[in-house]
């Protein structure tokens, strides 16, 4: 319990960011038409690929004799990149179809 | 200087995510929104690689980082470009799983950092004071050195990321038919017990971690049982992710993917806490909350509650209504008769479903529609919100075939016009036109809004066979006197129809 309270105290600014972001996330997409559900999900999917930054940090900090960190970090970078790049490209492909019909 | 540049890169990244999401929720700006978010992401990643430093030390292992990025980019672009429009939902699920796995791996590595703290190293890092305080606290035993809080975040990232990874892989398998529905008696109790064990074990680890270090060869190590418990949590999380998605029927998979999507967002946000990284935090939490709302919106579009989706085991083997055998007679119609019906109708409504998508028949469908219009028939498409495998799936497919936007009617609008429609052509759709959703309270899809095609004068259903649809439920519609069946692959049938309509 103490650990948790202490942690909140230490990261109080981040806790604020979290709470405000929650409201922002709800607000931002609350009026989306059903047609856009799939592309929006796919776009959000690409955005959480931001976890790649953690993977890069893990990889970049790994000592050269720490094989566990090197191998897992390397895998994490690949998977994270797949998430980001694949996610944005798939979303773009879906939305490409929408813009075509506008013409 | 570099640190503040990085902060600005992260700030821009966070803002682009917000703007990107906002733009993604409007049809006109959606594509740009996606690019805006992608640009912000690129900036944040590039900034991290070149500007990030910790304790005055920059990142190394650039070779590894760049080859990882390169492999991921090449595979990701190829996979995303090559995937068929019909397989899009699976692909999204797979990419989501990759993100979850990424969070899982980060947590494993960070746990191992936490579990083995080389004493000499922390001091040589230059942060002498901090290292000393940590040491004194550790040796004196029990005094909090924030290690508990850090472990809590690592465990949260591990559990959520792993559940999302395992669940997404199962969802992917289910959507492409590799994994079958699987449920056993008392599965919910097993799942809840598993979740309980995970939470208790994680809580226990956070509580005892401070007192669990032993000094060995100049480094601090955690007791072996701590490490073992950590990996037990990992194993249980995988099992939980699998069993959580297993019993949920295919028709509810979009909702599940959306939910897992928001899970991965939260797992990414845990990384934000771990590295004090604002862009990971905002990006992750935004997706977490937006994803949750999106999940609820999707449930609403199907008139189902989230609880129902997760506990109801939609279309699973347990549901009594699904097992009911339908014994009735249906009548078939020949291609030429169907062509005559369509040609001489005043108003035709086309109801596309997954069958159309699988057969890649959207282009020839558009051809039929143009042909009928030329002959003076009014043609429109009725799009059920969850037709296909995901909300919006049909709109994307038909847009690909250049079907004009005005021809696509949403469910309420289409239902209002059913009375005046002469013929409805159902192309590979099933559950979304099943009257059981209105009439049969025992049916697992009871309550889902449907396209009321039985109100039209005549219904022609194209299907490959009499097999039940994705939810595994028989469809009364096929046995109604108004309904005629036109068996065959949607593309082949449509091609023949086009040829016939031309000559009648």
Short summary:
Chain A is an all-alpha fold and 103 residues long.
Question: Any overview of this molecule?
Answer:
- The complex is a heterodimer of chains A (103) and B (504).
- With 103 residues, chain A is mostly helical.
- Chain A is built from five helices and no strands.
- The longest helix of chain A has 36 residues.
- Chain B has a seven-stranded parallel sheet with strand order 6-12-11-10-7-8-9. A three-stranded antiparallel sheet of chain B has the order 3-5-4.
- The longest helix of chain B is centred in the N-terminal third of the chain and has 29 residues.
- Chain B is elongated, with a radius of gyration of 28 Å.
- The chains are: A mainly alpha (103), B alpha/beta (504).
- Chains A and B meet through helix 1, helix 2, helix 3, helix 4 and helix 5 of A and helix 1, helix 2, helix 3, helix 4 and helix 7 of B.
Helical content of chain B stands at 55-70%
Number of domains of chain B: 2
Task: State the shape of chain B.
Answer: elongated
Number of strands of chain B: 12
Overall number of strands of chain A: 0
What form of chain A results from the Cα inertia axes? Answer: flat
Radius of gyration of CA atoms of chain A, rounded to a whole number: 19 Å
Counted up, domains of chain A total 2
């Amino acid at each position: 319990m103490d650990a948790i309270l202490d942690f909140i105290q230490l990261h109080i600014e981040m806790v604020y960011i979290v709470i405000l972001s929650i409201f922002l996330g709800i607000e931002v997409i609350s009026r989306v038409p059903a047609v856009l559900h799939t592309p929006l999900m796919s776009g959000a999917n690409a955005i959480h690929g931001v976890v790649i930054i953690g993977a890069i940090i893990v990889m970049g900090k790994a000592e050269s004799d720490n094989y566990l960190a090197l191998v897992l970090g390397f895998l994490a970078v690949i998977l994270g990149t797949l998430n980001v790049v694949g996610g944005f490209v798939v979303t773009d492909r879906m939305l490409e179809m929408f813009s075509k019909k506008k013409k | 200087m570099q640190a503040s540049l990085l902060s600005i890169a992260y700030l821009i990244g966070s803002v682009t995510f917000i703007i990107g999401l906002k733009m993604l929720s409007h049809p006109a700006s959606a594509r740009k929104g996606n690019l805006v978010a992608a640009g912000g992401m690129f900036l944040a990643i590039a900034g991290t690689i070149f500007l990030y430093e910790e304790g005055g030390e920059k990142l190394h292992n650039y070779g590894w980082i760049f080859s990882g990025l390169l492999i991921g980019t090449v595979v990701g672009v190829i996979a995303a470009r090559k995937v068929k429009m019909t397989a899009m939902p699976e692909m999204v699920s797979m990419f989501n799983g990759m993100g979850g796995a990424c969070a899982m791996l980060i947590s494993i590595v960070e746990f191992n950092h936490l579990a083995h703290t080389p004493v000499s190293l922390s001091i040589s890092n230059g942060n002498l004071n901090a290292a000393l305080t940590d040491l004194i606290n550790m040796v004196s035993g029990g005094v909090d050195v924030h290690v508990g809080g850090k472990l809590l975040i690592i465990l949260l990232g591990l559990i959520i990321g792993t559940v999302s990874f395992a669940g997404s892989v199962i969802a992917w398998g289910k959507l492409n038919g590799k994994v079958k529905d699987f449920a056993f008696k008392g599965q919910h109790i097993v799942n809840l017990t598993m979740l309980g064990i995970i939470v208790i074990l994680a809580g226990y680890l956070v509580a005892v971690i401070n007192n669990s270090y032993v000094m060995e060869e100049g480094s601090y190590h955690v007791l072996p049982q701590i490490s073992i418990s950590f990996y037990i949590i990992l194993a249980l999380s995988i099992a939980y992710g699998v069993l959580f998605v297993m019993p949920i029927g295919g028709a509810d998979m979009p909702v599940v993917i959306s939910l897992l999507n928001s899970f991965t967002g939260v797992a990414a946000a845990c990384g934000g806490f771990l590295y004090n990284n604002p862009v990971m935090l905002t990006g992750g939490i935004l997706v977490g909350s937006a994803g949750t709302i999106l999940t609820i919106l999707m449930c609403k579009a199907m008139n189902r509650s989230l609880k129902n989706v997760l506990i109801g085991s939609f279309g699973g083997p347990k549901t009594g209504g699904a097992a009911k055998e339908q014994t009735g007679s249906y009548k078939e119609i020949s291609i030429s008769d169907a062509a005559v019906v369509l040609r001489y109708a005043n108003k035709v409504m086309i109801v596309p479903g997954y069958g159309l998508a699988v057969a890649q028949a959207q282009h020839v469908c558009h051809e039929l529609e143009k042909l009928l219009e030329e002959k003076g028939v009014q043609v429109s498409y009725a799009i059920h919100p969850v037709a296909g495998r995901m909300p919006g799936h049909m709109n994307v497919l038909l847009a690909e075939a250049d079907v004009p936007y005005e021809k696509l009617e949403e469910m309420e609008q289409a239902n209002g016009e059913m009375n005046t429609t002469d013929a409805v052509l159902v192309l590979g759709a099933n559950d979304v036109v099943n009257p059981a959703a209105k009439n049969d309270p025992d049916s697992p899809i009871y309550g889902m809004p449907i396209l009321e095609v039985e109100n039209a004068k005549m219904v022609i259903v194209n299907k490959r066979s009499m097999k039940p649809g994705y939810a595994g439920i028989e469809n009364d519609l096929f046995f109604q006197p108004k309904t005629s069946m036109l068996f065959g692959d949607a593309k082949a049938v449509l091609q023949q129809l086009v040829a016939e309509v031309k000559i009648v």
